[in-house]
Input
Amino acid sequence: MPHSTSWGPRGVTWTFSGVVTGEELLGSNQEIYGDERFDEMTYQIVDLTRVERFDVTQDDMEVMASNDKAAALSNPFVKVAIAARDETIKQLSSYYEAHSSESPWKQQIFDTLSDAQAWAILKEKS
Output
């Protein structure tokens, strides 16, 4: 269940570990929508590399994609980088990506946190 939220200068990184539920994943997104930094945010990094069990459903991912599409109306310039090793997590992340196809947000799934950071943060500076 534990997760941490870290704000950088232009974005947020969530680090999840242990057992992750759909409710927790959805809640982490909800906590940033009302934050004053959201309007200037250019990236979200979701670190799922230390997750032991992912109790998240396709319905949870569809709700998250819908919420993010609505949030994109306020800030269309966000990149969502997901770092995951587990194949089930990657499949569910792909499901999120498929349901976000109409969103202006760009999404990508990576095997490592460093690759996710490089795409989301370092590419922004180039």
Remarks:
- The CA atoms of residues 7 and 90 lie 24 Å apart.
- The longest strand covers residues 43-55.
- The helical segments are 22-33, 58-72, 87-99, 113-125.
- The two ends are 36 Å apart (CA to CA).
